[in-house]
Structures are given as structure tokens and as C-alpha cells.
Amino acid sequence: MRDTEAVSDVGSAVGRIPSGVAILTASDGDQSTGMLASWFQQVSMDPLMVGIAVKRGRPIEGLMDASRRFVLNILGENPGDMFKHFGKGFAPDEDAFSGIESCPWGGAVRIDDAIAWIACSVESKTEAGDHAVYVGRVIEESAASGSTREYPKPFVHLRKSGLSY
Fold first, then answer.
1. Global pTM?
2. Strands across the sheet with 48-55, in order?
3. Alpha-carbon distance 119 to 96, whole Å?
4. Which of 12-16, 61-65, 84-88, 117-121 has the lowest mean pLDDT?
5. Closest to 160 in 3D by CA, of 12, 51, 4, 57
6. Model confidence pLDDT, tens digit, residues 1-11
7. Can you tell me whether residue 115 is helix, strand or coil?
8. Do the beta carbons of residue 34 and residue 96 sit within 8 Å?
């Protein structure tokens, strides 16, 4: 077992791994939800695929498993309103998109304020400790345009400790 100082050092080191922040969405039938997500990354170029980690037991997990689709809505540099809205979490029967400009997209939801969205079909799901890692094949995407020199920048997140959110 690690001593407290070693655990603190490990947590600090892992917390320095930068990540973006997105709103992960999924739908099945008339049920939809969204959650803040910060553990995602491109995992393949051909075919184009992304991976995302979801804490097991979150309501979105069942929707992703059923619909086999999800959308990553990438947040820009000032995500305060989205953090406030999605940071609280939602019960399965709550409307996660009330007051949010969004539109349904075959098995998920696109959020209008996102600087980019990436729609995926689930290729695989792997258990990874207290999370499930989904790999999705990109089937449609869009990014907010800017001049050739300046695109909207994503929010970059660093945690104080990699041992907690």
C-alpha cells in the first residue's frame, strides 16, 4: 500500500494530464440525457474513432448501450453555463436539455453552443476499473468555423488530483 504522500504525488501527476471537456449525450426512444465528460480522445485515424470513459452506473451508460450511438459536444473556452447546467447530473426521468438550445441527432443530442460535435456509433465497450471505455466510429461531425488563423478554442481542463473528479 502506498503512503499518503506517495498517493498525493501520484494523484497530482495524473491530474496534470490535460483534457478537453464535452457534453456527452445519448438517447434511446423518448429518453435522452447528457453529462460532463473529460476523459475522451481520438484513438484511430482510419477509420476515424474516438474513445470516451463513462463512470459505471451513470444513466447515460444504458442509453449508449441500447442506441449504440453517442455525441460528444466539445465545449469552448468559457464553459461556465454548461458546467453549471450539466455538472449537477440528472435522474433518468429528468429533461437534461431543458433551457439548452439543442437538437436531436439519431441516438443522441447536438448542443448548439458546442464549438464542435462528433457523432459516433459504438464499436466496442470495455470495462476499465470503475469506468467503461467506449470506442465510437465517427459517422458525422461539425466544427464551428473561424478565420484560417483562429478557430474557436476548446476548454482545457487540469485536475488537482487524478484520484477524483
1. 0.89
2. 31-37, 22-28, 69-74, 116-128, 131-143, 48-55, 40-45
3. 18
4. 12-16
5. 12
6. 455 555 577 88
7. coil
8. yes
Residue 123: exposed, middle, or buried by beta-carbon count in 10 A (0-12, 13-18, 19+)?
A: middle
Q: Nine-digit cell at 119? A: 457523432
Fold topology of 16-157:
Pnp Oxidase; Chain A (2.30.110)
Q: Is 130 exposed, middle or buried (0-12, 13-18, 19+ CB in 10 A)?
A: exposed
- What residue ranges do the domains of the chain occupy? 16-157
Q: What is the rounded CA–CA span in Å between residue 127 and residue 100?
A: 32
Residues whose CB is less than 8 angstroms from the CB of residue 117 and which lie 6 or more positions away in sequence, other chains included: 71, 72, 73, 74, 105, 110, 111, 141, 142
